[in-house]
Specification:
Blueprint (H helix, E strand, L loop, with lengths): L7 H11 L4 H4 L21 H12 L9 E2 L12 H7 L2 H4 L11 H18 L3 E2 L6 H16 L3 E5 L4 H10 L6 E5 L8 H7 L4 E8 L9 H10 L3 E6 L17 E5 L15 E5 L11 E6 L5 E6 L21 H38 L5 E2 L8 E5 L4 H10 L2 E2 L2 E2 L10 E4 L6 H12 L3
Parallel strand pairs: 1-13, 3-4, 3-5, 5-6, 6-7
Antiparallel strand pairs: 2-8, 7-8, 9-10, 11-12, 12-15, 14-15
Length: 445
């Protein structure tokens, strides 16, 4: 909270109600040897004005996308957010809304959830969606857990290059399940279809593909789908939702589960989150879907109303029968994505996708002309691409930062990625900004 009203008198009253005389009595159960006895070396007390001024000074040191031209991606993109999005989510009835267990007092929140689900189903061409998860990584982990719950198999195959952060989240959330993971990827970062077909077996629970993949390239998803289903494995696809403005929806190539990061649907960059997990699936798996689902029904008077349905989370049923231990959704950002999709409409999302695509290809074509630079491969890509550079990417990024440009991601930081400079281009980037970036890259060619 922005203001803490607990005066010494109020604190003492709280202690009295608890049944202790002072704060020391409250924490006496903590062994003395575990207590910190050193000097915290805190600065002198400051007034409220001085504290705000100091925090603003610290905040101004951050390298934000509002003060810099951002070519970073890797799952989080510098996108345009229409003003209507913040106007709606800043309304107190949404911003302070809690879990909508009581449908009679939560119709607005429940309707927003239902609208979000409907929009995600339209975007992905899937039968059913939940009302969001934490982020793209946790959504992918939940897809693995749901696949295992469906077929009781524990082997998972990564087809092509998956966001390394997503893979870490999957292994962390699924720890204790004895899952095993295999990866089939060629040197260009795309799926090794031949090895995938050789190694998939009746023990495989699911084949996982990111489309576009972690380097922005498009995968041969229809062929991967054929291979996955030939052995009875589920087909899990992690998507960039904006790409679906111009790419075929996963439901059209028979995906079983679709996950994704919803940040690009009207959510600004914010140092890693919180963001928004997308999760959609076929109707036959609806009783195993994690998270919240809002449904529509009629009340006792015959009026349309919204309710939570299929509540199979560990909060509401026996733990061993729960489909997931995810017991919340990113409600406020789910609402932001809903407002964004409603505002942009089908034509707007197509326009954003096309702008991102053409601008990314313009920048990539200019980079390829520079001596010493090349793209990882010549495969089709959406709005992100990996560049092989003549010097360490970190040197380029440091130089670009001097000119207010966040030049991309040095993939050397990831042990399971091809080394290079990962560059993303969104609809916000201008020709002038891209040409300025080219001038910086020329210094090292």
């Amino acid at each position: 909270m922005s203001f803490n009203p607990n005066t010494e008198e109020v604190q003492q009253e709280m202690l009295n109600i608890i049944g202790v005389n002072n704060f020391e009595d409250l924490i006496k159960v903590i062994p003395n040897e575990l207590r910190f006895k050193g000097d915290l070396n805190l600065p002198p007390e400051l007034s409220e004005y001085e504290i705000i001024k100091l925090l603003q000074q610290y905040s101004s040191m951050n390298a934000s996308s509002s003060n810099n031209v951002c070519f970073m991606g890797g799952g989080a993109y510098d996108v345009f957010v229409p003003s209507i999005v913040n106007m709606v989510i800043d309304r107190s009835e949404f911003k302070t809304a809690y879990t909508p267990y009581q449908a009679e007092v939560s119709q607005g929140t429940l309707q927003a959830m239902y609208e979000f689900q409907s929009l995600i189903c339209n975007l992905t061409a899937m039968d059913v969606s939940n009302a969001s998860l934490y982020d793209g990584g946790s959504a992918l982990a939940e897809a693995c857990l749901m696949s295992n719950a469906h077929n009781r198999k524990t082997e998972f195959i990564y087809a092509g290059t998956i966001n390394p952060n997503y893979k870490k989240v999957v292994s962390t959330i699924c720890a204790g399940k004895n899952f095993s993971y295999k990866t089939f990827v060629k040197s260009d970062g795309t799926t090794d279809l031949e090895e995938l077909e050789k190694n998939i077996s009746d023990k495989t629970s699911a084949v996982i593909v990111q489309h576009p993949n972690a380097y922005g390239n498009l995968e041969e998803v229809e062929e991967i789908e054929r291979i996955a289903h030939s052995k009875g494995a589920l087909f899990i696809v992690s998507v960039d939702p904006i790409s679906l403005g111009i790419l075929k929806a996963p439901g059209e190539y028979n995906a079983d589960i679709v996950t994704g990061e919803g940040q690009s649907l009207g959510i600004p960059l914010s140092y890693g989150g919180p963001y928004l997990g997308i999760f959609a699936t076929k109707k036959e798996f609806v009783r195993k879907i994690p998270g919240r689902i809002a449904g529509v029904t009629l009340d006792a008077d015959g009026n349309k109303c919204f309710v939570l349905t299929l509540q199979t989370r560990e909060q509401q049923i026996k733990r061993e029968k729960a489909t997931s231990n995810i017991c919340t959704n990113q409600g406020l950002f789910m609402l932001a994505a809903t407002v964004y999709m409603e505002t942009m409409g089908k034509a707007g999302i197509i326009e954003v996708a096309e702008n991102s695509f053409h601008k990314a290809h313009y920048l990539a074509s200019k980079i390829k002309e520079l001596p010493g630079y090349s793209l990882l491969n010549d495969k089709p890509f959406f709005r992100e691409f990996l560049v092989k550079t003549p010097v360490s990417p970190s040197i380029i990024l440091d130089e670009a930062k001097k000119f207010g440009i966040l030049g991309g991601i040095d993939t050397n930081r990831f042990s399971d990625c091809e080394p290079g400079l990962l560059i993303a281009v969104t609809e916000k980037r201008t020709k002038e900004e891209m040409d300025n970036y080219i001038d910086i890259l020329k210094k090292f060619s």
